[in-house]
Amino acid sequence: MQLSPPGPPPSPDAAAAHGGGSPTLGQAVGVVGQDVVEVLRAPCGTDVPVSGAGVFDEGETLQARGRILIAPGVDTSAPGAAGVLRAADRAGAAAVVLRRGAQGIAPSLAEAADEVSTALLARAPWIEWGELIGLLRAAIARTGTAPAEASADVALGDLPGLALALAALVGGAITVEDPESNVLAYSPTADTADPLRRLTILGRRVPSWRVTELAESGFLTTLWASGDVVHRPADARFPERLAVAVRAGDEILGSLWAAADGEPLPSGARDALRQAAVIAVPHLLHHRLRSRSAASRRRYAVRALFEERPPDVAAAAAVLGVEAGQACTVLTAAAAVAIAPDVLDRAFHLASLRVAAHHTPAFAHRDGDRLDVLVAGTGAGDGVDRLARDLAGVLRGAGVRPLVAVGPAVGGLGDAAASRAGAAQVLRVLRERGGPETAGAEDVRFAMDALRVTDAVAEHVPSAADAVAALLEHDERHGTDLPRTVAAHLVFFGDAAATARYVGVHTNTLRYRLRRAGELCGIDLTDPDVRLLVELGLRRAGLIPLP
């Protein structure tokens, strides 16, 4: 069901140029972007003032007045969506944001939207709630101060144009940087520019030695902690600089640096740079959103292909830039043994960078303790096995003992989940066997068949599970190592000498343990039927294959 039109959407440039007073709904949505938050219904227009952003809680109405409220877990198709909108309206909220439902807008919600004053917004599916509320708060924290005349014609997000306008405002050379000291934009510089500025512009980031100097001197700490312009005096190498952090509320978006450009900075440069920091807020917000949105959209598209039933294959293909019917394969990487979370995080980050550099489209998706990689265009000779070996090498170099499982190639993106499930089966085999580092289904097909048989039989053969459970329970209480001993006995086909060597005991001790296991569980290991069932139980428990 469609809602009545909300009126013309707020223009981002107009929103960014909104002057004076409290921020408005249109200003906030304009800065965040209509592709992130869509205005479905705004009964009072988009010029209503907003005082903040928060999470919808029907029991906390005093803090909702004038706010944009997000409602995680509620979508526009849900029966309870109308109740959320009405409750937000009773609390005086300026707007409420819901996730767009797969079935569109519920009739009860459309009816409620025509009867309340609170605006109804829909969240784009690819952005997370936590990131959205951060963007809204950052946009609202900008107080609506009118930009200086020098920057009035700069389009939202035009960072080179912004740098040029701010250079005219401040009277010096301007560099716009992100919080990691990467150069986002810079104003044209004179031939007399100092070497540090030239190095920074050519390298598109502040040289690492300079960052170290600024950090060790405490300058960066002062810059990020201060709400004002910070002065860096001239020294024997470089002229003076002024710097200011660009903030939206408590969030640091980047920094502006002003340097003398052929002549000293004017006396009013400090006040001008302070004003420039306010002007830059919507532009850096816009830049951050655009730089993140593409990656967020890709992550969402890959996750949808893996987890949604059925996935929107056409939409995912459009976001990923591949054909829906293109063959694909999923690789799954993991650590063979437990590893410190920070080590695994770094290893997966490096692996993701390697995936991004693959010669055919490939996309990494982190899922807990494993990294799934969707590789498109994976016909013969397309290097999937090579990528698996490369990922294993990256993980190994990062201090992680790697396992990389290759799923079966499938005929289109719609079957990516099947390839992922196949890779998960291969990974299970690799984990139980402790290797090899990389393998596909064909490499371990007999082991996979054994797993399938074990899984299928387990629920129908309680006697095997009961016998193994008794062994495991006894071993946990007494530390007798009976389960491993029985497993080795079965793996070595009753060869007492080989079994004793593996377990590390005398053959007489081995015979005693086997006899004791039989007594405890009421099993006769000389009976071939019993041996088969006990082996299935031990496989199910992960004790066979032997490590």
TrEMBL record:
<feature type="domain" description="PucR C-terminal helix-turn-helix">
    <location>
        <begin position="484"/>
        <end position="539"/>
    </location>
</feature>
<dbReference type="Pfam" id="PF13556">
    <property type="entry name" value="HTH_30"/>
</dbReference>
<dbReference type="InterPro" id="IPR051448">
    <property type="entry name" value="CdaR-like_regulators"/>
</dbReference>
<feature type="compositionally biased region" description="Pro residues">
    <location>
        <begin position="1"/>
        <end position="12"/>
    </location>
</feature>
<dbReference type="InterPro" id="IPR042070">
    <property type="entry name" value="PucR_C-HTH_sf"/>
</dbReference>
<dbReference type="InterPro" id="IPR025736">
    <property type="entry name" value="PucR_C-HTH_dom"/>
</dbReference>
<feature type="region of interest" description="Disordered">
    <location>
        <begin position="1"/>
        <end position="25"/>
    </location>
</feature>
<protein>
    <submittedName>
        <fullName>PucR family transcriptional regulator</fullName>
    </submittedName>
</protein>
